[in-house]
């Protein structure tokens, strides 16, 4: 997969006319990858995407076995390389965040909170695998991101999120440790961390799974809560 060709295509393809797109074109002419409220890196193939692909490709047989026939979300897709890779590995459906259309593929563009609200009403938009990279660079987006992941990830034990990120985004504020703490405090997902680089800038892959509560455990927790309330009220 020639990433430079795809990135160049994304950056040079003429968008629809409009004020917002004029702002995007102006940013691209100035070689700016991120401009708040205009573009959030969606026209650039970031290193995190490359590192995640480099991590997955030597494991193609294993990935193919897991991805084949599954529903995949390429969240914050940019040039869409992770979603394209999932299609190559036999995914039955891939959803990207963008505004183009193609066979076996769906595209959505919008704020994560707005998409979360929309997808709550669409039961078919639940995914077995979410692939994403370089999306924790701004701490103020963690709430929306967590909401999006919670809505989008299917409720089954095998559903997974693979997220490649720089260890720390200096000057912007986001970093892996703060994001992990943020996620752990909410108790929705479990996390494992895998180092992706041996030298240079540190990149890691976060593997996330939904914490599923069994029916018996849920009943026990409810019963325990009732007992606690009863004891408190007894006095």
From TrEMBL:
UniProt xrefs under InterPro entries: Methyltransf_16, SAM-dependent_MTases_sf, Small_mtfrase_dom
Main location: cytoplasm
Top enzyme category: transferase
GO CC annotations on file: cytoplasm; nucleus
Protein keywords: Cytoplasm, Methyltransferase, Nucleus, S-adenosyl-L-methionine, Transferase
Family: Belongs to the methyltransferase superfamily. METTL18 family.
Protein name: protein-histidine N-methyltransferase
Species this chain originates from: Dibothriocephalus latus
Source taxonomy: Eukaryota, Metazoa, Spiralia, Lophotrochozoa, Platyhelminthes
């Amino acid at each position: 997969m020639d990433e430079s060709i795809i990135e160049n295509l994304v950056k040079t393809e003429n968008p629809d006319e409009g004020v917002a797109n004029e702002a995007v074109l102006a940013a691209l002419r100035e070689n700016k990858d991120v401009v708040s409220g205009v573009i959030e890196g969606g026209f650039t193939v970031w290193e995190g995407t490359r590192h995640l692909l480099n991590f997955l490709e030597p494991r193609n047989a294993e990935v193919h076995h897991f991805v084949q026939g599954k529903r995949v979300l390429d969240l914050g897709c940019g040039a869409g390389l992770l979603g394209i890779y999932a299609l190559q590995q036999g995914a039955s459906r891939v959803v990207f965040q963008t505004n183009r259309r193609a066979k076996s593929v769906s595209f959505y563009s919008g704020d994560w909170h707005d998409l979360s609200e929309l997808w709550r009403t669409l039961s078919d938009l639940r995914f077995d695998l979410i692939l994403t990279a370089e999306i924790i660079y701004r701490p103020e987006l963690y709430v929306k991101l967590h909401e999006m992941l919670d809505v989008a990830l299917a409720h089954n034990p095998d559903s997974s999120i693979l997220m490649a990120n720089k260890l720390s985004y200096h000057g912007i504020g986001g970093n892996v440790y703060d994001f992990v703490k943020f996620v752990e405090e909410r108790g929705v997902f479990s996390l494992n961390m895998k180092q992706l680089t041996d030298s240079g800038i540190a990149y890691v892959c976060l593997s996330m799974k939904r914490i599923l509560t069994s029916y018996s455990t849920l009943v026990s927790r409810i019963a325990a809560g009732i007992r606690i309330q009863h004891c408190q009220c007894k006095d």
